Fold this protein.
Amino acid sequence: MPQSPFTAARRSYPNGREETERKGFIMRGMSSRILASIGLAAMALIASRPISGQGNSTAAPPLVVTAFNGGSAPAYAAPKTPWGEPDLQGVWSSDDATFPVSRPQPGQGRGGRAGAPPAAASAAPPGLYLTDEEFAARQKQIQDGIKAGENAISAFRGDFARRAFRQTSYIVDPPDGVMPQPTAEARKRARTGDRGTFGDGPFDTFDDFTNYDRCITRGIYGSVARVIYGNGNRIIQSPGVVAISYEMIHDTRVIYTDGRPHINNSIRQYLGDSRAHWEGDTLVVETTHLTDRTSIGANGNGLRHSDKMKMTEKIRRVANDIVQYQLTVDDPVTYPRPFTISIPLTPLDGGVLLPYECHEGNMAVRDALAAERTEDRALAADLAKGIKRERRSAQEGGLGAGGFGPGGNPATAPAPPAGRTGGAGRTGGAPAEGDQEK
C-alpha cells in the first residue's frame, strides 16, 4: 500500500529548503470564521438575468466516478457538516491523476478496448480503463517514481504520485476520450502570447506572456489538472458558501450555495462567477461571467476561450480519502462540442498548501524581455559586420518542454533528459502537456 498521506511527510522545494509538515490534512477549525469574513466583504452588486449565450447551454453529463477503476463503488456515506451538508473539506491533490488528458487512439500506443462492455456501475465509456497488463505496468511505474522522488538530490524536485489508477484519460466525454480541437474560426484568434515563455516570442511587451508567466492565474481547468508540482486544492465550507484554494498561483474561489443570483452581467472575472447547489452528495458548481483572457490547457496556457464559456463542476466525496472531481467545458464559440474531464483527487502529502510566492521571485517576464533586447543588439552588431543570420530561438538551449500544437493547444512534450531530477515528479505518466517550468 502507498504511504498514507495522513502521516507527516517531508517535502523539498526549489530553493533546497526542506520542511516537515504536520500530521493531518483537514483544516476545519478556522473555516467558519474565514468564510464568514469573506461573506461580509462580498459584492452587493448582483443581477438575476442570465448572460446571453450562457443561459441555454447543453446540460452537463452525469458524474462519472473513476476512482474505483471501473468496479462497483463500495457502500459509503459521506460525512456531514454540523449544518447538514456533505463534507468535502480537506486538502486534496491531483498528484495521482497520472494519465493523459486525451486517450491514446489506435496507432498511438494504447487503443480503446473494442468490444469490451463498459462497467455497469460506473456508466464509463469503453476504453476508459487499462487492462490488467497495462495496469500492472502503471503500478510499477508509480512505485519506481516513489523511489526516484524520495531519493532525488537536487535543488528542484517535483511532486510525484503514490497511488495508481486504471484511468486512461482525463476526458470521459466525448466517449472516445479525445478532447475536441478548437474550430477553424477559433484558431484565427491564436496569438504568440498564448505560448508565453514556452514559445519563441516575440517578447516585446508584458502582453506577450501568459497569465501563468505573469503570476496572475492558471484559470479553473489549469489549477486542477496535474502538473510537475503545486497540485494542491483546499476545500473549506461554511453555511451557504464553499471556498476552493489552489496551491500554485494561490487563487481562491468563493462559491455561494445560498441561492443568490449571479453578479451583474457586465462584470467579467478571470475565474468567473460561480453559483452552486447540492444534488444529493454532489456539489454542482456552475460558472459564468468569465473573461476571454484565460485558456483550457496545462497551467492555463494555450488558445484562449471566449467570454461565452460556461463551466460546470461536479464534486463528490466517494471515500474518506477520495473526492471525485468532474468539469464540463461548454464554449460553442471555441469548441465544436462540450467536453468533460473527471479525475480522482486524493489527500495532499503533508496536508497543507505550501506558500507560493510567485510575484516575489518571478523573473520570467523581465529575463525574457532582457534576452530579446540582447538578441536585438547582437543581430544589429552582426549586421554591421556584414553578417546576416537568423534570429536565435527563444527556446535554444531550453528544457525542450511546453510545445504547442495546432491552434495553440498544448502538445505532448518530450521527456526530460536522463538524470534531470526534476523529471522524478513526473514519473507515472502525468500529462506532459506544456507544464514544465523554466
